[in-house]
Each structure stands twice: as structure tokens, then as C-alpha cells.
Q: What sequence folds into this?
């Protein structure tokens, strides 16, 4: 949840100050969401030492945390490591998101890289996801009653990142081979 900063002026059109998606606006995180976010970041720093956590920049829809710092070869396609909370939903995901690589789904499955990993794959739009189902988290509610769900999500992020780093070479071969094919030849 966000409030609009009344001191922010982005130009003569006052709607720009108040309408996400209609121009510039300055979100101010509500205190309860800020407290949740700070406690989440502290817990994440203790569970996932090698990664840094940052909030989504989706304004009022900021219900995702991103993690940076995975140790990957330079030629691995860009991957986003995400813990999606959901919006008061029962189920959401910890994800590795590969934008623009949805057509590598079949090659990923056939590669065997996901076997016995505990992770699934999904395609949404043009993105390919490697994911684990997690309980949904409400970042506007108190943190302590949800600590167990947060820990489950952080452990999933840690495990997904370890899988990603350990399988980077094989994943690179799968993703590069699919990207190199003309779209008419992709499955």
C-alpha cells in the first residue's frame, strides 16, 4: 500500500502526481508495509548470505522481492530471482524468471535439469520460469505470524539460486540452443 507524496510535482498536470501509469508519481510506503519489508530484508540477510534483497518497483503493486548477486557465468541470459508474495492469496511462488525464453520450455524439460530438483517450470507470456510453490504472504499484515511462510520462501530462493549456480553450464546450453533456432523450428 502506498500514499502519494503531496510534495512531489512532476509538471503542470496534477493527475500525474496521483495516477500510477499516467505519469510520474512518488510512492510513499505505508508504515505497516515498510515495517514488514524491513523485517523481511533483515531475515533474508541472515538466511541468504550471498544475495541482496530489493523491493519491486511496481508502485502500489509491490508484492515481490528481488534477489541479486547469484554467481553466474557472464554469458548466462539475464535471470530475475523473485519471491512473489501474492495479494492476500493462499499460494504464490519463488521464481527464476528468464524473459524472452518461453520457447525453451520443452528443451528445459527434455534436458533433465529439473529432475529431482523439487522445482517446476512454467511459461507466462514470453518468460520461462523455474519455480517452487510457496504460501502467499500479506505484506500489509503483521510480520511475526507470517515468519514461517517468509522463511519457507527464503529457503526456496536459496535453493533455487543454488540450483541455478550449480546448473548454469547445462542451463546455458539449453537456453542458447533454443535461442539460436529460427522460430519456425522451435517446438
A:
Amino acid at each position: 500500500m502506498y500514499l502519494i507524496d503531496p510534495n512531489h510535482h512532476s509538471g503542470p498536470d496534477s493527475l500525474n502526481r496521483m495516477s500510477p501509469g499516467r505519469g510520474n508519481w512518488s510512492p510513499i510506503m505505508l508504515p505497516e508495509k515498510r515495517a514488514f519489508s524491513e523485517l523481511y530484508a533483515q531475515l533474508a540477510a541472515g538466511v541468504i548470505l550471498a544475495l541482496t534483497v530489493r523491493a519491486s518497483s511496481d508502485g502500489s503493486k509491490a508484492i515481490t522481492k528481488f534477489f541479486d548477486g547469484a554467481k553466474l557465468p557472464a554469458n548466462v541470459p539475464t535471470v530475475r530471482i523473485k519471491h512473489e508474495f501474492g495479494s492476500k492469496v493462499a499460494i504464490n511462488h519463488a521464481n527464476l524468471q528468464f524473459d524472452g525464453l518461453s520457447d525453451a520450455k520443452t528443451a528445459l524439460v527434455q534436458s533433465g535439469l529439473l529432475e529431482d530438483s523439487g522445482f517446476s517450470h512454467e511459461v507466462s507470456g514470453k518468460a520461462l520460469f523455474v519455480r517452487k510453490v510457496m504460501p502467499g504472504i500479506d505484506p500489509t499484515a503483521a510480520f511475526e505470524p507470517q515468519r514461517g511462510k517468509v522463511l519457507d520462501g527464503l529457503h526456496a530462493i536459496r535453493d533455487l539460486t543454488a540450483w541455478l549456480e550449480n546448473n548454469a553450464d547445462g542451463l546455458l546450453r539449453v537456453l542458447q540452443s533454443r535461442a539460436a533456432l529460427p522460430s519456425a523450428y522451435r517446438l
Remarks:
- The helical segments are 15-18, 31-47, 105-111, 147-166, 168-180.
- The two ends are 42 Å apart (CA to CA).
- Residues 1-22, 25-29, 180-187 have pLDDT under 50 and may be disordered.
- The chain is about 35% helix and 20% strand.
